[in-house]
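Help wanted!
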Amino acid sequence: MIKTRRFRPSCPVRPCWFRNESVIKTVLASGLAIFTVFAAGAESTIEQWGRFELALNGPTNSNPFVDVKFSARFRQGQSETEASGFYDGHGIYRARFMPDKPGEWHYLTVSSSPELNGQTGVFTVTGPAARNHGPVRVANTYHFAYADGTPYQELGTTCYVWQLQPEALQEQTLKTLATAPFNKLRFCVFPKRYLWNTNEPILYPFASGPGVPPVSFSQDRSGGSAERRHLTVLPPASPGSNHSLETHGQAARATTNWDFARFNPLYFQHLERRIADLQQLGIEADVILFHPYDGGHWGFDRMPADADDRYLHYVVARLAAYRNVWWSLANEWDFMKEKKESDFVRFGEIVSRDDPYHHLLSIHNGSLIFNHTLPWITHASIQNGSAVEDPGRAELYRDVYRKPVVYDEVKYEGNIESRWGQLSAEELVFRFWNSTVAGTYAGHGETYQSDDQILWWSKGGVLKGQSPPRLAFLKQVLDDAPAGGIEPVDRWQDPRCGGQSGKYYLIYLGKEKPASWKFTLPKSTTAAGVAPADGMKFTVEILDTWNMIVMPVKGVFTLKKTDNYSYADKDGRSVPLPGKPNMAIRIKRVNE
Amino acid sequence: MIKTRRFRPSCPVRPCWFRNESVIKTVLASGLAIFTVFAAGAESTIEQWGRFELALNGPTNSNPFVDVKFSARFRQGQSETEASGFYDGHGIYRARFMPDKPGEWHYLTVSSSPELNGQTGVFTVTGPAARNHGPVRVANTYHFAYADGTPYQELGTTCYVWQLQPEALQEQTLKTLATAPFNKLRFCVFPKRYLWNTNEPILYPFASGPGVPPVSFSQDRSGGSAERRHLTVLPPASPGSNHSLETHGQAARATTNWDFARFNPLYFQHLERRIADLQQLGIEADVILFHPYDGGHWGFDRMPADADDRYLHYVVARLAAYRNVWWSLANEWDFMKEKKESDFVRFGEIVSRDDPYHHLLSIHNGSLIFNHTLPWITHASIQNGSAVEDPGRAELYRDVYRKPVVYDEVKYEGNIESRWGQLSAEELVFRFWNSTVAGTYAGHGETYQSDDQILWWSKGGVLKGQSPPRLAFLKQVLDDAPAGGIEPVDRWQDPRCGGQSGKYYLIYLGKEKPASWKFTLPKSTTAAGVAPADGMKFTVEILDTWNMIVMPVKGVFTLKKTDNYSYADKDGRSVPLPGKPNMAIRIKRVNE
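Answered by r_m:
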């Protein structure tokens, strides 16, 4: 229910809320669809963690992206959130809000422009719909959960610039994701120019020079140096604009002098549409804000500092109300040779300050790991394939950061020449399991050579590898595990053993091929676990992680302390194993 | 040469230097011996990085440890150092200085007491003696060197409270160290009460209650609950002292109410003597300022914050001028349950601020690793035995901290029941080699059960294990390696390979037992190395790290690029190996 009405004060310290009492135009965003209502008194409901959107007509003279300050304050009781607004072209200014509580919310606009200042209104927020669990947050120090407490078992993949490929390919990517096991997708805001990705994007993020309109290309799928372009331009801006976005007959080129002070709203509207598409699939969008795969071709990797900062303010103002957004400050931050480490600290502080909802915020490394102890970093996003070759390695970063560790790049399943893109599916699945029992998370990517130059890791399309079904099996195992996350149980002693002490254990044997496993549990107690004790009873299952088979072991195992460090079965039983690699042992407490 | 003369101003902004123009009493510290001269005009020389000591008579009323502020400023040209002074009993106040440059130095005292304020003088510093290389500093980000640039190949051991054992045992420890390979010793300022160490110390750091003198025990060597104590007390303080340190007939006990505001100078004089003894042996003293092995027995692990801070100021004022001092804020900081993490941050800031020479400063963990990214931490001191079971693990902390990583506790060679004290010598040596090729440093400790309860790790004495000669062999290898330190050459790819690219490689095969090794070098370039290139020539030696044998391989190996990542010998040669574990391959560039 949305009502436009006079705001009734309950907080006398905020008189500015009443500078403009006119009935205003409101916009409502419900669920995934954003629809703009320019009429007073429109009624509807918005769900908790949905997007409320306020759209107002404002000035179009000068440069609206730079010259007009606009934000909105959203209030319920004592809780108030200020959301930055943004200019969306055509004289329209928007401010978005993701309410975290149901009930009646009030808003007040604040602007340097009288037209946009002091607008007030009220709307009603209902409880979340069935599949809406809110944004993902850090839970239990090392793990994740949705805002409503539902565990989020992170399983990500990467398609760096899927949304900048031809429309049909984007749709194919979404179709693939709909049945894949992944619940996070890493991708870049800016276009990418790199091996297997030398085609121009379908859109550009900035206007191409002062007074020049933002342009949009729909491109053929041959990739490479595509010359046959179809130019799309924004419709003319409202009359009276000094710097209207006029149509322009010349295609933007890579060498264009971009006007970093004028965004292309179409570019970001498209990005938002794709983020909303992912949300509908239950997939988190790990939005990469900067990356080095430009190399000066467009120059988005070497904008001046004020342009970088304005870009961040703009992106956060646009996207923060999408509940499935995560911020990744950069991919391979240290490979951006035009930036200093201190620039990324500034970027992180901007995003952290601007984002009223404190979405997950990380930064991904090339060879130099960022200082993930900084307070605004929510989790360590790490590229290091070697770290997940062994759970004893994977665990070490947890101790250092005391935050969730996500190995967002562990090398890719594929067959390209580069050694980062030629893992076997078996090796990739092995790395996922290592990261799992270490209490961390790994990321998927796929780089199979292809005549059409479409590699999943860069452009999306279809998955060709053998790991996704095995990762779906792993996901099932994780979904079946107790809430609170897998912890390394016998840290710094036996890295193969993850779980929650006294409740649940997952022992991953990796490349070992034993014919049996002596039933032994460490005495250690984990954060979400209980102390093991004599007499506790457990069932055992053998998981063939490659062939995706669960084999229950007959009978029940009963704990008996053996020494100062461990418990065995009271009858000294062992678990017979098939003598093959990729076995895990799942041990669950029997309810007594 | 030391001269006492009127100070000639060169810095007009410091008029305070001239508040007292009287000819003053000076003290000279030369080399290791500190001798106090209370006469004007005494002449001698002090070497660079030696200790200059100024001793003045001052007030003895009230509590001199607390009520008198005293420091000295030492100046040469534009360089000035302020060193805090300290009260050393008997009405004597001292300030010490470690000059880092030869030539003429001037000093001026600053004090809240008129007697101690405004004293000036001048003395001459000569170049360092032959075995004096200055304090150890961080070098090349991950390594260490003495201040004069001489590489310092860190090889430490641990005798936590060796200096608090009976005199004869202390002497035996020094005798053992004189022929052992170690160039660093970790030990605690405070006494320790723990397994195999329940005897009382020979001295206590504080007076036992207001007006009660500090006490000293010389104890029999039976350990445990020694009852036969010989009491030593400080001589009477100078007449006129309100709080003189009178003789006292009663032995201090564990349950004593310590007066944390009155130090026992004897305790610290003794500590200093032992630090000087180590210096003479070329051994760095890694002084552990706090530890949990008190458990409230004496209560030094749970002093109030003001007592902690005063203790730190006092210790730093006393010890900072010893060039071989390192500060270890704590052993197993997180096991000190009476302290918060923020306390240790405060401690670190105090030590860092007080120490004019910025000696190496670290903090050692139990199970919770400290935030070693903090700027005042010079190197990561880490307890984690599992991290050095694999060089691929050992290396990971380097990337995180971008500082030297010293694994100060990797479990100990020994045969006690605790799993941290029962490594075989072979396993300990294996861990040292892993840490070496990973570009990090490991620490030694020994815990062999003994009828006399004297375990090296706690009390010193004699070494009984098999690892020390192997560590001496490792030390020889390191001393032979090029300056600048061993770096992981093919980081995140092949952790077995350390060295300096294009110059020197050390490939450690650990528990592998291959019959041959295909000569292959990675293409990577390390910080102190050069890029490998076709035609470069190398000699190869096989090192049996356990049997301490160097086996040269016949002929010369010539590089030829094989693929995008590596070089092999141009003729595809392999290196024959004995098929035994613990082999390393040393590869040195041939001078052409």
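OP: Thanks! One thing I noticed: The interface with chain A takes residues 367-369, 371, 373, 384-387, 389-390, 392-393, 396-397, 399-400, 417-419, 491-493, 495, 564-565 of chain B (CB under 8 Å).
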